[in-house]
């Protein structure tokens, strides 16, 4: 997951493509990216997205710092409702998370509870957002209900890789689960064989009973005529090589399914030209391009939210401003390397 994220989320930044004659929108976006350290946040969120199957950003306003705050909430606590059969049009999003009581009281005042209930150690918080309304719940108690100050749902939800005609995506782990489990089994089998070979089994043939059989250096065993004793050699006949070859096949399946060739991990046994290296990495390049289509759309929506939230609180207008994401090429310079 980390290797895929490293190739996908290389150096990237937002650019304003139209509607910003004064340059104010570009400056605001640049300040928001730097203040929230979005380059690092995007790498961390990409790893979470690849593992969990979906990613999420939340864009809000911090009154104390007077700036836009971008966070990446746990997508496992996000619930979404969309309009009809169009999964791209969200009309309601709810975010559920847990706060310790002291933190909740510092943010929202006292914890609501029924008469006779003890003060809880933690509070389960639910934020429910529509474009027009915001509600804050603490357990079963409605703490706050007011108009949405942003005029838009301040969440960006996107799939890792989309399932056909569905809103939620699929994790990168799903196609890798079976080969990973089989690799674990194959390693365990090979480990046991090597362990037994280091502590060999003594085999006694044509012997009805035995006593005083000492297993130690220099021990002498007396066995009847036509009987024999020997050590069981589990490594004879190239048996271990079969296990190693099977593990190599599993590794090949693992890299094929993940679309991350072994060469991406620096496993270069022979000299390659830059073109040959790029051809070998082509599956990873295609995967990066597919995912960047999804990530570009999500980051553009996030930038639009940053401008909308800032405009609401700063009294600015950014209508007609459009943005894009510029990605660095992770394979730049390969054609020049030997």
Note down, in words, how this protein is organized.
- Helix 1 (2-8) packs across helix 3.
- The longest helix has 33 residues, at 282-314.
- Among the domains are: 54-170, no CATH class; 176-252, no CATH class.
- 37% of the residues lie in helices and 26% in strands.
- The strands form five sheets. A five-stranded antiparallel sheet has the order 4-5-6-7-8.
- The relative contact order is 0.16.
- It starts with a helix and ends in an 11-residue tail after the last strand.
- With 338 residues, the chain is of the alpha+beta class.
Short description:
With 338 residues, this protein is of the alpha+beta class. The chain has helices spanning 2-8, 24-35, 38-52, 101-108, 177-198, 239-258, 274-280, 282-314, and strands at 12-18, 54-62, 67-71, 78-83, 86-100, 122-129, 133-138, 141-147, 155-159, 161-162, 169-170, 201-205, 228-232, 322-327.
Describe the structure using short key phrases.
338 residues, alpha+beta, elongated, three-stranded antiparallel β-sheet, 8 helices
């Amino acid at each position: 997951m980390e290797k895929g994220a490293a190739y996908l989320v290389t150096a990237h930044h937002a650019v304003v493509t139209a509607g910003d004659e004064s340059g104010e929108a570009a400056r605001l976006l640049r300040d928001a990216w730097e203040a929230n350290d979005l380059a690092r946040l995007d790498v961390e969120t990409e790893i979470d997205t690849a593992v969990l199957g979906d990613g999420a950003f939340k864009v809000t306003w911090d009154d104390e710092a007077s700036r836009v705050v971008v966070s990446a909430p746990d997508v496992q606590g996000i619930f979404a409702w969309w309009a009809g059969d169009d999964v791209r049009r969200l009309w309601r999003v709810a975010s559920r998370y847990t706060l310790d009581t002291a933190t909740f009281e510092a943010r929202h005042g006292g914890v609501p509870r029924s008469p006779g209930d003890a003060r809880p150690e933690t509070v389960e918080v639910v934020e429910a957002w529509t474009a027009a309304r915001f509600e804050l719940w603490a357990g079963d108690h409605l703490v706050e209900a007011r108009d949405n100050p942003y005029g838009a749902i301040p969440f960006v939800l996107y799939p890792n890789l989309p399932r056909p005609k569905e809103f939620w995506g699929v994790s990168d782990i799903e196609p890798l689960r079976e080969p990973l489990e089989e690799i674990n089994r194959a390693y365990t089998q090979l480990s046991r064989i090597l362990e037994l070979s280091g502590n060999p089994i003594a085999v006694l043939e044509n012997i009805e009973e035995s006593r005083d059989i000492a297993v130690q250096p220099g021990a002498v065993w007396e066995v009847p005529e036509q009987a024999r004793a020997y050590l069981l050699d589990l490594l004879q006949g190239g048996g271990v090589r079969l296990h190693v070859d099977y593990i190599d096949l599993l590794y090949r399946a693992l890299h094929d399914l993940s679309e991350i060739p072994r060469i991406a991990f620096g496993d270069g046994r022979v000299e390659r030209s830059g073109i040959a290296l790029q051809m070998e990495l082509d599956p990873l390049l295609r995967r990066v391009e597919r995912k960047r289509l999804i990530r570009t759309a999500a980051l553009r929506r996030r930038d639009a939210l940053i401008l909308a939230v800032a405009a609401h609180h700063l009294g600015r207008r950014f209508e007609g401003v459009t943005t894009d994401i510029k990605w660095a090429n992770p394979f730049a310079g390969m054609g020049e390397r030997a």
